[in-house]
Design the sequence.
């Protein structure tokens, strides 16, 4: 590690001062592992070196060494990145030493500088300000957060797990919230859902609005601690990455024993665990044989290394054939929604989702399964736009029918 | 020069998104990962078609502004950083593999096709064919590499990568398109002759003769199995004869030598790596035995290497970029030089002395090209990009090594323009005159990458 994790927030970009110039601009970060495809969405779109991860490292170094100044174009370069993590996954030079998260981490810390210097987009600032007040980036009211939850639900006295719903499922993909709720009920676990849950902070961290993000994060950690929650389950890949990875990095020192005071599981990890322990089984079968393919959300896959659990679950569903796309796991194509791109560059986000759907169509699958409501949202928009003949479905939505 | 007019014109030619003169883009293209100091760039443009390139060339003639063709920009020696400002023509958008002729074994490609793309494409669709590629990162272009007399896998067997060019299509400095090689007569891009061979004019000319828009590159059969037989040699004076003996047989697909003084126990040793291939384990085993015998008889010793080392070496490309972190500083450059085999012992000794003078641990790689007709001798100098003195040391070490190579009868390869000046100084005056005459005829306005190969 570069320096004490606890001082990372204070140091900001300076945390990487001693390493950022070590990027050689060799360009492995632009490609898939086998180098056949350009897999950095941003470089693929904009083509100039500046829009690759290596380019960004050099430009950020240029800012740090005062060879460059803040400008609108610099801001565009920093924000036109889905923070998909393909760069860290495929950088051969620095990942070995600094972990695959270094590239996205540097880009996000540079965005924090952009925000401080007045180079964050108005749209992002708006959802940041709204989150400060109403704890969601969707310009909705906090009091409506659990509007989807059946009125008669009450948290148990001694919950085994806490379900962290997240803003996208609470306000935009409510079906996923409802279905996760149903799945947890069918499983028979004692679970709690909190009206006091705030945005996990992901959209803010991704766009450089760290102060507000940290306020949300601290509140959520206190909420779980005060309610004695030992395991948090999320159905959103973005919340999962944020709570598991970012909260740890921001508040806990990885060098000491000091760790997040609760376990964080994505619903796919949780269900896989229960299947392995024979605590649940698929009671029903899907009608007819269905061909499906699986999209790895960046936040679950490259950012957190969860590739196999969703696949293992899918493979155990009776009547389903899993056919893989050409680019999967560490090489998966980004859906295009992350890193503030859906809000900031909506057309491009749609273009990327369309590209991924085309890859799914090549497999002959009828259903494209994902495990992130944000991906699902972007794919759904793209399917609507182009009338693609494929169904998009969150894994949980499929499981609800089978348990 | 009216910059506003030029950027508008460039945008009109390639579209608004693919021409730039923003401070950020110019910052990127004003430097490369090697030790050269940054130099100013005026514009960057990314054409998608031959027609767009023709229009850019016409504009450059009108404005008398330099054009610098760029592939992956990975030579390390500043070859795509303008010497006299101008427009960097980044060719990466022209990245189509246009044809694979399986029977005549060639690939017809656009200039932006990366080595990574070509090799993976063939692995997937033509698993029995392979291209020769360098150990540069996979974003290096096949065309950029072939055009600098690159070398790499298959070089021992088939020569340098410039020799593997069957033909080219080029936009000349006057904007006209010209095809060279069999393609100028036939639909097949299978050979450079039997007509006057003008292709050579475009190799190692560093973009001064035109912009290559298509290139036919030879492909080779790919044996099923590959292995490395490692040897170790204590006396550098044994190397020329050992190489001579190994290349006398047809055993080696490739032959590499390397020397480093760290860790201490490898100091004074030269590692010999003979790459062998075969279609069966029996075939490999018999080759292993023969190589071991050659080692024994010629002053070297067979040695076992850990599986991890072998795996790294069998990768294509090898992860040579690791050298960029030797000084925890994201930079390295090397004097690749072409030299006769007999010069290796002295070159190795004296290049190591230069390294020590600049407080750099000697690291040298030697690749045998074409049966030992030539060797590529590459002392490497890592530096810390964030430390101007360290960078200068690397530059000074490169300069001294260039001089050493010339003194010994070799020629610095893909040399920075300072090194090119040293080469030109030593060049036969009539060669210089011929080069100058050709350039003046082809490029009367001097727009093509001026400052390179300048003959006064
Ligand atoms: C880690 C590392 C390892 C390396 N190992 C090797 C090795 O093993 N063998 C080897 O040969 N090299 C090696 N190299 C050197 C170099 O990277 C390669 O030769 C290759 O990258 C050059 O291709 P490029 O696309 O980067 O060319 P560029 O740097 O873009 O261009 C090279 C030259 O060709 C000109 N040019 C490029 N395209 C055109 C065109 N279409 N028309 C006209 N002129 C053009 C440019 O102006 C320039 O002068 C290595 C480099 C690195 C960084
Ligand atoms: S981020 Fe890594 S792979 Fe990309 S250019 Fe830098 S060192 Fe190379
Ligand atoms: S995070 Fe994704 S989009 Fe951003 S630079 Fe890395 S690979 Fe490119």
Sequence:
């Amino acid at each position: 590690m570069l320096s004490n994790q606890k001082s990372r927030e204070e140091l900001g970009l300076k945390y990487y001062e001693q390493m950022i110039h070590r990027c050689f601009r060799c360009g492995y970060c632009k490609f898939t592992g086998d180098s056949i495809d350009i897999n950095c969405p941003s470089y693929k779109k904009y083509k100039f070196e500046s829009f690759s991860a290596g380019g960004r490292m050099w430009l950020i170094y240029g800012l740090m060494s005062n060879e460059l100044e803040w400008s609108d174009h610099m801001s565009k370069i920093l924000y036109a990145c889905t923070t998909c993590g393909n760069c860290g996954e495929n950088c051969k030079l620095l990942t070995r030493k600094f972990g695959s998260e270094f590239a996205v981490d540097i880009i996000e810390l540079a965005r924090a500088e952009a925000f401080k210097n007045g180079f964050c987009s108005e749209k992002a600032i708006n959802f940041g300000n709204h989150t400060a007040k109403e704890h969601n980036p969707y310009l909705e009211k906090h009091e409506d957060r659990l509007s989807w939850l059946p009125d008669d639900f009450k948290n148990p006295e001694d919950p085994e797990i806490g379900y962290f719903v997240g803003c996208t499922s609470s306000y935009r993909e409510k079906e996923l919230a409802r279905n996760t709720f149903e799945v947890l009920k069918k499983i028979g676990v004692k679970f709690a859902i909190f009206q006091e849950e705030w945005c996990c902070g992901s959209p803010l961290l991704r766009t450089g609005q760290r102060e507000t993000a940290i306020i949300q994060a601290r509140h959520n950690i206190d909420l779980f601690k005060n309610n004695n929650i030992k395991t948090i389950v999320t159905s959103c890949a973005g919340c999962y990455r944020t709570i598991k990875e970012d909260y740890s990095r921001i508040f806990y020192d990885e060098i000491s024993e000091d760790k997040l005071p609760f376990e964080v599981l994505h619903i796919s990890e949780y269900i896989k665990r229960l299947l392995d322990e024979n605590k649940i089984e698929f009671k029903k079968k899907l009608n007819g044989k269905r061909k499906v393919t699986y999209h790895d959300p960046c936040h679950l896959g490259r950012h957190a290394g969860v590739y196999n659990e969703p696949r293992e679950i899918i493979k155990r569903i009776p009547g389903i054939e899993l056919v893989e796309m050409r680019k999967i796991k560490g090489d998966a194509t980004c859906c295009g929604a992350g890193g503030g791109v859906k809000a900031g560059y909506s057309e491009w986000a749609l273009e990327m989702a369309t590209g991924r759907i085309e890859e799914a169509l090549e497999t002959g699958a009828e259903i494209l399964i994902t495990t992130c409501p944000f991906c699902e949202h972007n794919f759904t928009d793209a399917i609507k736009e182009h009338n693609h003949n494929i169904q998009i479905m969150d894994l949980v939505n499929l499981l609800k029918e089978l348990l | 020069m009216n910059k506003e007019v030029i950027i508008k014109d460039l945008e009109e030619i390639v579209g608004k998104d693919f021409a730039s003169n923003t401070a950020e883009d110019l910052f990127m293209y004003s430097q490369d990962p090697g030790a050269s100091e940054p130099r100013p760039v005026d514009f960057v443009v990314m054409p998608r078609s031959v027609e767009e390139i023709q229009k850019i060339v016409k504009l450059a003639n009108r404005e008398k502004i330099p054009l610098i063709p760029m592939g992956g920009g990975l030579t390390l020696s500043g070859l795509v950083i303008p010497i006299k400002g101008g427009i960097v023509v980044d060719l990466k958008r022209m990245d189509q593999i246009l044809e694979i002729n399986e029977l005549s074994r060639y690939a017809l490609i656009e200039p932006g096709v990366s080595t990574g793309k070509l090799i993976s494409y063939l692995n997937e669709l033509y698993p029995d064919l392979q291209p020769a590629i360098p150990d540069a990162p996979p974003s290096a272009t096949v065309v950029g590499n072939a055009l600098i007399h690159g070398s790499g896998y298959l070089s021992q067997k088939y020569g340098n990568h410039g020799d593997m060019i069957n033909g080219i299509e080029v936009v000349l400095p006057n904007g006209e398109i010209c095809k060279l090689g069999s393609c100028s007569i036939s639909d097949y891009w299978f050979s450079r002759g039997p007509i006057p061979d003008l292709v050579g004019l475009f190799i190692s000319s560093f973009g001064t003769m035109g912009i290559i828009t298509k290139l036919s590159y030879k492909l080779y059969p790919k044996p099923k199995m590959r292995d490395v037989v490692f040897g170790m040699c204590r006396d550098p004076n044994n190397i020329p004869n050992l190489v001579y003996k190994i290349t006398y047989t047809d055993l080696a697909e490739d032959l590499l030598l390397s020397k480093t003084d760290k860790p201490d126990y490898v100091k004074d040793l030269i590692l010999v790596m003979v790459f062998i291939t075969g279609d069966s384990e029996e075939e490999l085993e018999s080759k292993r035995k023969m190589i071991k015998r050659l080692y024994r008889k010629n002053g070297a010793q067979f040695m076992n290497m850990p599986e991890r080392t072998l795996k790294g070496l069998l990768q294509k490309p090898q992860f040579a970029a690791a050298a960029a972190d030797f000084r925890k500083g994201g930079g390295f450059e090397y004097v690749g030089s072409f030299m006769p085999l007999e010069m290796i012992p002295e070159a190795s000794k004296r290049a190591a002395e230069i390294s020590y003078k600049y407080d750099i641990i000697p690291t040298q790689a030697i690749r045998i090209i074409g049966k030992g007709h030539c060797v590529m001798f590459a002392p490497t100098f890592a530096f810390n990009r964030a430390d101007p003195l360290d960078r200068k040391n690397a530059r000074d070490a490169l300069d001294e090594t260039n001089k050493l190579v010339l003194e010994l009868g070799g020629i610095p390869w893909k040399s920075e323009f300072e090194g090119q000046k040293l080469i030109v100084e030593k060049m036969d005056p009539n060669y210089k005159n011929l080069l100058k005459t050709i350039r003046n005829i082809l490029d009367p306005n001097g727009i093509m990458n001026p400052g390179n190969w300048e003959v006064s």
